[in-house]
Design brief:
Blueprint lengths: L2 H29 L4 H10 L19 H15 L5 H11 L16 H36 L4 H15 L2 H12 L25 H39 L2 H8 L4 H17 L14 H8 L4 H10 L3 H29 L7
Helix pairs in contact: 1-13, 2-3, 5-8, 5-13, 6-8, 7-8, 7-11, 8-10, 11-12, 12-13
C-alpha cells in the first residue's frame, strides 16, 4: 500500500469513527437521569428524578400525578426527547451542524458554538504554549542526558524530573499559588492567582496586553507541562541511547565518521520517531488535562466549559465540545503518521 493510499484510507475512516463516537455519546446523554426534563421539573415543583418532592410526597404542593405527567411530557416534547433516537441524532448531526447551532439549556440566548468560540482562544493559548515549550525543553534535555548518561548531571536532572512528575497537577497548582500569588501573607506576590486577563485589559496597549497575558499564563503553563515533562524527557533519552548502541552507528565510526556526524546526522533523526507520536496531539492540547488546571486557576477555558456542561446536564454544549475534540483527535492521529514519514522516509504502512 502506498503512502497516499494509506492516508486516503485514514481520512475516509475519520467519518465512520466520528459517527460511532458521537452516536454512542449522544445516546448516553439521552438516557442519563437528571437531564433537562428532570431539572425543569425540580425547578417548578422541587421534585427529584423519581417524581418525589423534597418533602417526600408524590405530588408537591397538591399537584396531581396526572398534571405532573402532562408537564413532563410537555418538557420532553420541548427538548425533542419524544422523537426517536436516530431522528434526534440526525437533526443534531445535520440540521444543527453537530450541535453547534443548538441553544444551550443553561444559557438559552447562546448557541453551543458561541460558548465554545468564547473559551477556545483561551485554551488554545495555554495548550500551544505548553506543547511547544515541552518539546523545546524536553528534547534537548533528553539528548543531553543521553550524552552524559550516568553522570552527576544525569542523576540530578532525573531527580528533578521525577519529583515534578510525582506531584499531582492540582497540588502543584495550589503550591505555586501559595508561593507566588500572595495567597499567604509573607510570601511572594508576583503573579495573579486567577483569571486570564487583568481588569482594564481592553484599554491596554498591545505590548501591555501581551505582558499581561504572559503574566497570567506562566504558572498554569508550568502545571500543563508537568504531566508530560518526565515522559518526553526519558523517552527522548532512552530512544537516543538505543540508537547510539545500534550497529549502524558503529558502522559510521568504522568508516571514519565523526561523533557529530554519527549523533546529529544519523542517531538523532531515528530517535525522534517515537517522539513523533505526540506531534498529532498539537490539535487537542487545549483539552487534555485542562479541567483541573483551569479549576485551580479559575481560567475560563474549554476544560471548565466541558465540566460545567457535564455537571449542569447542558447536553448541547457538551456534545459540541465532544464533536470538536473527536474531529481534532482523529486528525491528530493522521498528523502523527505524517510526521513519521517526514522524520524517517523508510517507514512504510502495510
Amino acid at each position: 500500500m502506498s503512502r497516499v493510499d494509506y492516508f486516503i484510507r485514514r481520512l475516509l475512516l475519520v467519518v465512520p469513527t466520528f459517527l460511532g463516537i458521537t452516536l454512542l455519546c449522544f445516546a448516553i446523554t439521552q438516557f442519563v437521569p437528571g437531564g433537562p426534563v428532570e431539572q425543569m421539573m425540580m425547578r417548578m415543583h422541587g421534585m427529584g428524578a423519581g417524581g418525589e418532592s423534597s418533602s417526600g410526597t408524590t405530588a408537591a404542593g397538591g399537584t396531581s400525578q396526572e398534571t405532573l405527567e402532562l408537564e413532563r411530557e410537555a418538557f420532553r416534547k420541548h427538548f425533542g426527547f419524544d422523537q426517536p433516537l436516530l431522528k434526534r441524532y440526525w437533526k443534531w448531526l445535520w440540521q444543527e451542524r453537530c450541535g453547534m447551532l443548538t441553544r444551550s439549556y443553561k444559557f438559552s440566548n447562546k448557541t453551543a458554538w458561541e460558548m465554545i468560540s468564547q473559551r477556545f482562544p483561551v485554551s488554545l493559548v495555554f495548550g500551544l504554549t505548553s506543547f511547544i515549550l515541552s518539546y523545546l525543553v524536553c528534547v534537548p534535555l533528553g539528548v543531553a542526558k543521553a550524552m552524559k548518561h550516568g553522570s552527576p548531571f544525569d542523576m540530578a536532572s532525573s531527580v528533578i524530573v521525577f519529583t515534578g512528575y510525582a506531584i499531582p497537577v492540582f497540588a502543584l497548582g495550589m503550591l505555586l499559588k501559595l508561593l507566588f500569588c500572595g495567597t499567604v501573607e509573607g510570601l511572594w506576590d508576583i503573579f495573579p492567582a486567577t483569571g486570564f486577563q487583568s481588569a482594564g485589559f481592553a484599554e491596554m496597549s498591545f505590548f501591555a496586553k501581551v505582558r499581561d497575558i504572559l503574566w497570567h499564563t506562566l504558572l498554569p503553563v508550568i502545571c500543563y507541562m508537568a504531566g508530560s515533562f518526565a515522559m518526553l524527557t526519558l523517552l527522548m533519552k532512552n530512544s537516543l541511547l538505543e540508537q547510539i548502541n545500534s550497529d549502524y552507528i558503529r558502522t559510521v565510526y568504522a568508516k571514519g565518521g565523526s561523533t557529530a556526524r554519527a549523533l546529529w546526522g544519523h542517531a538523532l533523526r531515528n530517535a525522534l520517531v517515537p517522539i513523533a507520536t505526540g506531534f498529532g496531539s498539537v490539535l487537542t492540547v487545549m483539552f487534555a488535562g485542562s479541567v483541573i488546571i483551569e479549576r485551580v486557576f479559575e481560567i475560563p477555558g474549554m476544560g471548565n466549559l466541558s465540566m460545567e456542561a457535564i455537571v449542569g446536564r447542558d447536553y448541547p454544549v457538551f456534545m459540541g465540545v465532544l464533536a470538536l475534540t473527536s474531529v481534532l483527535g482523529l486528525l491528530g492521529n493522521i498528523l502523527s503518521d505524517f510526521c513519521y514519514v517526514l522524520i524517517d522516509p523508510r517507514i512504510h504502512f502495510n
